[in-house]
Design a protein that fits this description.
The chain is of the alpha/beta class. The protein has one domain (about 10-145): YqgF/RNase H-like domain (Nucleotidyltransferase, domain 5, 2-Layer Sandwich). The protein contains 4 helices and 5 strands; from the N terminus they run βββαβαβαα. Strands 3-2-1-4-5 form a 5-stranded mixed beta sheet, sandwiched between helices.
Length: about 140
């Protein structure tokens, strides 16, 4: 289920991956997104909810955006089902409303931004995941204006 999110207060974005989960947060006016953290999930383990909870407690968001990985045709597959399961878990454990946002090309845009600034992505997978979450959140924020 997708919830309506408040238009004031911080939003937290979650880019769910198999090994790493990128986090980003907005400013209270919901104008700008900025990278926050990268959580690590060990292979075969559950979503690192305890680590996420620390960021939720520190940032006090009014809602959460979860990146929804769609196929190139826009359909949902197993990865999208996993992202929705994470969103359901976040709502269940935190009580925060969750909205899903198309994350297609967010990682590619993050990689492009790093390279455009003359940087290397070698050994910076955590940075890429945080930036991908930032791209997702910024696109969501821009869509609401």
């Amino acid at each position: 289920m997708t919830a309506d999110l408040p238009t004031e207060g911080r939003l937290l974005a979650v880019d769910v991956g198999e090994k790493r989960i990128g986090l980003a947060v907005s400013d209270p006016s919901q104008t700008l997104a900025q990278p926050l953290a990268t959580l690590t999930r060990r292979a075969g383990r559950r979503f690192p909810l305890r680590q996420l909870r620390e960021h939720l407690d520190a940032q006090q968001p009014v809602g959460v955006i979860v990146g929804l990985p769609l196929t190139p045709e826009g359909a949902e597959d197993e990865r999208a089902a996993q992202a929705r399961a994470v969103g359901d878990l976040i709502t269940e454990k935190s009580g925060l409303p969750v909205q899903y946002w198309d994350e297609r090309m967010s990682t590619a845009r993050a990689l492009g931004a790093i390279k455009e600034m003359g940087g290397s992505t070698r050994g910076r997978k955590g940075d890429v995941d945080r930036l991908a979450a930032t791209v997702i959140l910024q696109h969501f924020l821009d869509s609401r204006r």
